[in-house]
Design brief:
The protein is an alpha/beta fold and 227 residues long. It is 45% helix and 19% strand. Strands 2-3-1-4-10 form a 5-stranded parallel sheet, sandwiched between helices. It has a 3-stranded antiparallel sheet with strand order 6-5-9. The protein is globular, with a radius of gyration of 17 Å. The structure holds adenosine-5'-diphosphate. The site of adenosine-5'-diphosphate (ADP) has 18 residues, from helix 2 and helix 3.
Amino acid sequence: MKLVILGPPGAGKGTYSGEIKNRYNIAHIEAGRLLRQEISNQTETGKNIKEIVDHGKLVPDNIIIELIENRLRQDDAENGFILDGFPRTINQAQALDNITDIELVIELFVPREILIEKILARRTCKQCGAIYNIADIDREIDGVHYELPPLSPEKEGVCDKCGGELIRRSDETPEILEQRFATYDEQTKPLVEYYEKKSLLRKIHVTHGKEIMLEKIFELIEKELGM
Ligand code: ADP
């Protein structure tokens, strides 16, 4: 199973990919996490990209492509994988095409105003990367009802999974967010068309909470891959 999950910052790519990984026993490969690991390990690459990541801009294609290529070679990716946060540019998508054959691209769609509210309410575990969300949304936009309950930890500020501290990422501020959306619109959105042309793209409107959306996503994957 070789999947890509596509969508703007805050759409829930990380949350859903984690569940897809567990259900199908595939590797969850997160571009942002690979980059942040380089930064926290203070590798040469990490030092070069810290400024860029902190400002919500994209790191150079060659850097992320190399990290992803190495990650895809690890044992756990043999059984399949879901790519989350990669590709983010046409260049990266073309590089990926040269490495492997993607079977399905899932596009998560969420209106921008909901995204912004969700992202500012996001909390990430400093230790294991688990993601929580304290926003509670129940609203109609363009005739569609969005009912997105919070995904809170049992104890405020503490990770349920590992007890680590929950923090707001340094790129999760309104100003940086603007920049990340602009980057998404300019560089990543063209991928929708890129994968549409290859007939690999399937769009999912994120209108409900995690459990309901997961059912829809699993159903889609199993239908599309003939499982
Ligand atoms: P989000 O999905 O919420 O935007 P990520 O954790 O995926 O957050 O990414 C965080 C940051 O890492 C991005 O803002 C960008 O600076 C960098 N990054 C992540 N993925 C890529 C990529 N494929 N290409 C270039 N830069 C990336």
